Sequence to fold (452 residues):
Amino acid sequence: MTDPQSLLRRLFDRAVAVADPMQSLAPYLPARPEGRVVVIGAGKASARMAEAVEAEWGPCEGLVITRYGYARPCQGIEIVEAAHPVPDAAGMRATARMLDLLEGLGEGDMVLALISGGASSLLVQPAGEMTLEDKQAVNAALLASGAPIGQMNVLRKHLSRVKGGQLAAAAYPARLHALLISDVPGDDPAMIGSGPTVGEGSTRDDALKIVARYGIDLPASARAVLAGQSGAVPPGDIRLSRVENVIYAAPVQSLEAAAEVARAEGISVQILGDALEGEARDVARDHAALAREVQAGLAPGAAPVLLLSGGELTVTRRGDGVGGPNAEYALALALALEGAAGIHALACDTDGVDGAAEVAGAVIGPDTLAEAKAAGVDPAQALAINDAHGFFGAIGGQVVTGPTLTNVNDFRAILIAPFRLQHLASDRVHIASVRSRVKPGTGGISMGRDRP
Fold:
């Protein structure tokens, strides 16, 4: 407990590592069939998944779309980079080429689909008369609405030509085997990447209710699509009869892996759930209250406690700052804890991108608010304008990983030491510091120039 923030980062790194497709995909890959095989995919982990497939199967025919900066070297599968979270022309062109690749496949052919979080933005084929600009406007409105990811994806499906089972329908009558990395609460395959290979049970009326509930401003072309007949494929459609969807990596596996590391350090672990949803600042306040309650119940000398949780929190945009759900959670948590001694926390997105920023998340501790004061930044104001990334950038609290090449969504960890144990740990650090300055054989202390 002398370096709790380093421990929290180690737990996060372990959670990411176990979801790396190069470490986890191979056991779920079927034997390569004799006939024609086409590999398709989309998502922030899809290029890494394609790399893992070719490590087992050798060079393959196919096309995969991933986020800018997330490409991997493949032997035969073409990797195309496009924009996320707001789609662009590169994604739209690549999606059209993917659909062309699926044309004319027969019953003896197989399609291997690699789907991970981010596919909703990377697979771009707007329905009806919607343009790319209309699609971009819809995505921007969804991201600012505060709607849960499941609600966002329902609307996306009914405004698309590829989501909601339509990509799988395009491959029929070929057999389609989909491998998925879950980044959604509840691990519902229909919600991962807006379910391009999974039948959809919702209707356009359900989509309209979501629009009304969250006050989402849609362009006229999108409203015209919702006024017509949806292209989403119902679950019982014959075009989905030869589809198998397999979730092989999910948030709970990453939480359990982090828990194992913590337990090996003598820490007691409580997993609050892998499917938490809600407004980031509200969940943070609840977790701060829980952390205080846990600490109050710890006897002096008791083992520290780690609270772990996953899922996907949301942010309702109130200002024009730069933030994301994990950084906003961490900022709201720091404010609610008010510098409570012995409590440290980390909140990061496992894909390395929190919101639209190239920052995974943030780490906090008892000194976070004092560091902010010294740096001249106002945490309450930063929260009010959704500028959590700006706040943590100013005090050095950001966690920056670069592309992790996987995505099992949010990872949150709160490390709680018994109050008195925390002070003992500080005393030991102080004593060790003093001893390091004692001159051997003199019994005296070597004072640096900056000491009185």
In short: The longest helix spans residues 419-436.
